[in-house]
């Protein structure tokens, strides 16, 4: 509760940037068009703005990069003996009552080969400190409870999923509108052409000339294309005219709008994109999860059906590297008398390696140095240790996405694909092994081009991360030493467009 | 369907739109604006209009279409002539410069004899030259097989190599390129009578003669001609011929260098000493974890430093590989220069890009790490520098420490990939203050102010 107060306070202090104001203006213009019976012909900007729900202060919520508590030593100021005392005091307090590192618990679910966290506090902590896992019923942040409350009218605000849905609806509507305008324009032109034919004259000369040099600068006006922006403008104009006339002409629009677009609409993605970016407010309105602070003390009216799902790499990182997660081998049941056992790190590694195959490998199988889990964990750990927030890149067809600080702050800049490499002489000793590694490490050019094109389209830089696989070792007792035998090397692959590199 | 419209990615507004014109069909109406067709050409570059995506029954659309078609026919019907004034005649000399030099020497000797008979007065340079073996000019490639006796025109600024008699020798790709664009008339050699009318070489014959000569493959020629038309200048790189590999059998797998462990260093040791004081219950263990231990952490940086246990490749300290370490398709074959780079044949500057050419039909898979690593290590270190790079970490990472351009040719379709050795390990993100540059909602710091992307 105290934290909430802080949040709102900080938001108030933050100045509203210019683009936000612009966005607000545009948002209001759009909403104004949705109400056709506006008696005021005043410009839309003059209307009172709808209060925008405050954006949570992500800087505060996600101020800890890892779920590890850190106790800063008070600074030592040489000329101030009091500072020494404060340092000594802090040591003393730690000595007397050592602070406890919070340890969360989770269990391994073999059906989904992922690790589930069900405790609310643990879910919240793991998400807020380092963006671990995803909500099992949400797109990324576990927000099911908030959405459900919202749906039942218990909570204000919008969740990111709803924002997305709304944006999609708006976009679809605008597209239909654009198609309608195009159709109208074609009909008009047909009529004009028919009229011209009846008059016995050819179509006016200007038209011919524009057709001939249509690509000259006046194309934009001469062609009957309608962009989303134009559709929107036209719509606004229409509603305004209607309001001025106060006529019952609304039925014409209704009719027109009701008339389904018989034609299939295919638009150039380029045009569409541009229009969205320059005008549509929806493009600026990226999903921001507003629901973050569910009142902890609020009486839960219904159960939270959602849990946090950690990937194998995340779970192992939290457990082995940070020691903040205890992973049980089965979910805790109330009826059970004896608690489930916490898995040791070694057995956890083995389990996760075996489950990195589909179907999972036999539990008795020996650990191989190129098990998919080992490769992906090495890369995951490498980037995590450098400070990146690593999340799955399955959305974009890659292994990982790298976020700077976290997904709520900025888009991912890098998309990582992992490829094993077998340079060690062990792997080329026999023909059998050569065949084996050939099957493991080869990727076709077409595959690379596909991945590369997708990344270019979503404006991410493709990182091809090769992992040098060591020869097999006998034991996995020392996991640190095992991980130290791997080596990663990153290549940045980008399409080179000679046309654009000329100067 | 629901995702379809969301997944249309939003690209920046006009001005920064990355429209790849080469991906689109030509609008031939542009041709009407070119100088040679219309008499009064507007000085401005024509803008692109909007597209129709489906046919509609209006006459307007039909008119636009026929206008475009007419423009194309008009452009194609333009007569292309070889003007005798600008015509450049070349001779196909299969033996290359070495054979020609011998021939020259004989002729010179003959001439000297003839000249010596009548008078011994005026410029008698040839005898001294002919007496000693011709000093081999360093810069004429043995693969050069087309001789231009009277070089004139702009092409020879960037192409060909001149010999002592001011004749220019062209490499097969240069000759083929010039022949294709109609700037060169190559004649078959006529050994019997120098004054006889020589027969011009056809394009088919030129392809038959030059592709395959001196290591020129069709893939390399595709790359050459494609970039040449865009104005780039070319030099053959030392890795052009595959013969380097013969000097040494390709080692099956070189012993990987011991992984460089980028551990704490001296400062880290001191730090760990302090940590030991801080944290008497030393619970940190990399063997079974947790790596960071259960003790009191003083700073997140310490936590991250403890986490750094995965060795990574450092391109700066790595030794550069020799050319012979690279495996043939993954080897730099061209050094190319941007059109804006001042390029002098006699003293070429450092190349702007290094290009390796790969045929997807011969090498069906993308390179494995040893191949790609050797290719990059054969290029000089090119670390990110400059004020902008200093500021922007993303740019540094994208630029990398070494880079190479790989032209992947798939049956004549060339895809260029820039591959850079970017060392993420050298950029400690956790040390940077203030988090990501830019803002999620609007602009972004590096790589363009208005890039907005999908999460």
Describe the protein.
The complex is a heterodimer of chains A (503) and B (455). By secondary structure, chain A is α+β, with helices and mostly antiparallel strands. Among the domains of chain A are: 34 residues, no CATH class; 115 residues, MutS, DNA mismatch repair protein, domain I, CATH 3.40.1170.20; 136 residues, 3-Layer(aba) Sandwich (Trna Endonuclease, Chain: A, domain 1). Chain A is 44% helix and 11% strand. Chain A has 19 helices and 10 strands. In chain A, the strands form 2 sheets. In chain A, strands 3-4-2-1-5 form a 5-stranded mixed beta sheet, covered by helices on one side. In chain A, strands 6-7-8-9-10 form a 5-stranded mixed beta sheet, with helices on both faces. In chain A, β6 and β7 form a beta hairpin. In chain A, α7 packs across α10, α14 packs antiparallel against α15 and α14 packs across α16. The two termini of chain A are 57 Å apart. The N terminus of chain A is likely disordered. The longest helix of chain B is centred in the N-terminal third of the chain and has 21 residues. Among the domains of chain B are: 96 residues, tRNA intron endonuclease, N-terminal domain (MutS, DNA mismatch repair protein, domain I, 3-Layer(aba) Sandwich), CATH 3.40.1170; 159 residues, no CATH class. Chain B is α+β, with helices and mostly antiparallel strands and 455 residues long. Helices cover 27% and strands 11% of the residues of chain B. In chain B, α3 packs across α4 and α5 runs antiparallel to α6. Chain B contains 12 helices and 10 strands. The N terminus and C terminus of chain B are likely disordered. In chain B, β3 and β4 form a beta hairpin. In chain B, the strands form 2 sheets. Chain B has a 5-stranded mixed beta sheet. Classes of the chains: A alpha+beta (503), B alpha+beta (455). β10 of chain A pairs antiparallel with β10 of chain B, so a sheet runs across the interface.
């Amino acid at each position: 509760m105290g934290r909430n107060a802080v949040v709102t306070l900080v938001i108030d202090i933050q100045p509203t940037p210019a683009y936000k104001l612009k966005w607000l203006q545009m948002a209001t213009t759009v909403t104004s068009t949705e109400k056709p019976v506006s008696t005021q012909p005043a410009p839309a900007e003059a209307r009172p703005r709808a209060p925008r729900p405050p954006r949570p202060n992500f800087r505060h919520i996600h101020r800890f990069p890892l779920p590890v508590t850190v106790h800063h030593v008070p600074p030592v100021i040489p000329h101030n003996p009091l500072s020494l005392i404060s340092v000594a005091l802090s040591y003393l307090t730690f000595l007397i009552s050592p602070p406890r590192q919070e340890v969360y618990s989770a269990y391994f679910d073999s059906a989904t080969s992922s690790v589930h966290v069900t405790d609310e506090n643990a879910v919240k902590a793991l998400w807020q400190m380092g963006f671990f896992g995803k909500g099992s019923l949400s797109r990324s942040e576990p927000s099911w409870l908030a959405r459900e409350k919202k749906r039942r009218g218990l909570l204000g605000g919008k969740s990111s999923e709803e924002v997305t849905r709304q944006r999609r609806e708006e976009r679809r509507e605008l597209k239909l509108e654009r198609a309608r305008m195009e159709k109208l324009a074609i009909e008009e032109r047909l009529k004009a052409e028919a009229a011209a034919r009846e008059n016995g004259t050819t179509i006016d000369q200007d038209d011919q000339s524009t057709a001939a040099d249509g690509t000259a600068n006046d194309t934009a006006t001469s062609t009957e294309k309608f962009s989303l922006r134009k559709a929107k403008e036209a719509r606004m104009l229409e509603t305004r005219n209607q309001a001025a006339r106060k006529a019952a002409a609304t039925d014409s629009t209704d009719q027109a709008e009701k008339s389904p677009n018989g034609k299939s609409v295919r638009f150039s993605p380029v045009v569409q994109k541009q229009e969205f970016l320059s005008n549509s407010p929806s493009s600026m309105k990226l999903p921001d999860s507003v629901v973050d602070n569910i009142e902890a003390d609020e009486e839960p009216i219904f159960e939270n059906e959602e849990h946090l799902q950690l990937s194998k790499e995340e779970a192992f990182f939290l457990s082995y590297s940070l020691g903040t997660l205890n992973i049980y081998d089965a979910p805790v049941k109330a009826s059970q008398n004896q608690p489930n056992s916490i898995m040791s790190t070694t057995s956890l590694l083995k389990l996760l390696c075996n489950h990195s195959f589909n179907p999972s490998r036999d539990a008795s199988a020996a650990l191989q140095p190129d098990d998919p889990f080992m490769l992906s964990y090495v890369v995951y750990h490498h980037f995590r240790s450098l400070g990146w927030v690593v999340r799955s890149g399955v959305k974009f067809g890659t292994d990982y996405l790298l976020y700077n600080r976290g997904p709520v702050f900025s888009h991912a800049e890098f998309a990582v694909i992992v490829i094993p490499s077998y340079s060690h002489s062990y792997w080329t000793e026999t023909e059998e092994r050569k065949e084996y590694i050939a099957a493991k490490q080869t990727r076709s050019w077409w595959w690379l081009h596909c991945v590369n094109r997708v990344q270019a389209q979503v404006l991410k830089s493709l990182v091809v991360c090769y992992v040098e696989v060591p020869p097999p070792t006998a034991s996995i007792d020392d996991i640190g030493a095992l991980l130290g035998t791997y080596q990663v090397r990153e290549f940045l692959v980008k399409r080179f467009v000679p046309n654009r590199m000329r100067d | 369907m629901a995702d379809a419209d969301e997944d249309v990615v939003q690209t920046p507004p006009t001005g920064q739109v990355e429209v790849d014109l080469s991906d689109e069909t030509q609008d031939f109406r542009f041709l009407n604006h070119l100088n040679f067709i219309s008499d009064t050409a507007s000085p401005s570059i024509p803008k692109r209009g909007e597209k129709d995506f489906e046919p509609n029954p209006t006459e307007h659309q039909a008119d636009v279409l026929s206008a475009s078609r007419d423009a194309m026919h008009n452009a194609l019907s333009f007569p292309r002539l070889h003007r005798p004034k600008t015509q450049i005649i070349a001779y196909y000399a299969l033996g290359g410069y070495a054979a020609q030099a011998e021939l020259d020497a004989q002729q010179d000797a003959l001439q000297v004899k003839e000249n010596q008979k009548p008078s011994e007065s005026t410029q008698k340079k040839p005898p001294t030259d002919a007496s000693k073996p011709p000093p081999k000019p360093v810069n004429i490639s043995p693969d050069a097989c087309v001789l231009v006796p009277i070089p004139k025109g702009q092409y020879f600024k960037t192409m060909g190599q001149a010999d002592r008699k001011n004749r220019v020798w062209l490499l097969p790709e240069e000759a083929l390129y010039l022949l294709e664009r109609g700037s060169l008339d190559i004649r078959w050699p006529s050994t019997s009578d120098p004054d006889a009318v020589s027969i011009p070489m056809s394009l088919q014959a030129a392809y038959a003669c030059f592709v395959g000569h001196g290591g020129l493959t069709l893939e390399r020629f595709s790359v050459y001609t494609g970039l040449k038309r865009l104005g780039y200048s070319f030099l053959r790189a030392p890795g052009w011929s595959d013969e380097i590999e013969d000097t040494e059998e390709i080692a099956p797998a070189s012993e990987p260098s011991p992984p460089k462990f980028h551990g704490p260093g001296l400062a880290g040791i001191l730090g760990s000493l302090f940590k030991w004081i801080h944290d008497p219950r030393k619970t940190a263990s990399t063997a079974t974890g947790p790596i960071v231990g259960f003790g009191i952490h003083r700073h997140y940086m310490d936590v991250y430093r403890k986490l750094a246990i995965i060795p990574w490749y450092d391109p700066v300290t790595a030794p550069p590989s020799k050319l012979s370490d690279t495996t043939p398709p993954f080897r730099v074959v061209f050094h190319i220069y941007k059109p804006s780079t001042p390029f002098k044949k006699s003293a070429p500057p450092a190349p702007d890009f290094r290009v390796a050419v790969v045929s997807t039909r011969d090498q069906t898979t993308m390179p494995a790490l040893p191949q790609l690593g050797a290719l990059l290590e054969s290029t000089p270190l090119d670390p990110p520098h400059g004020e902008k790079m200093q500021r922007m970490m993303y740019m540094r990472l994208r630029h990398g420490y070494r880079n190479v351009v790989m032209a992947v040719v798939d049956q004549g379709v060339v895809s260029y990939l820039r591959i850079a050795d970017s060392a993420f390990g050298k950029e400690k993100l956790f040390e940077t203050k203030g988090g990501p540059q830019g803002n999620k909602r609007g602009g972004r710091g590096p790589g363009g102010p208005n890039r907005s992307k999908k999460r």
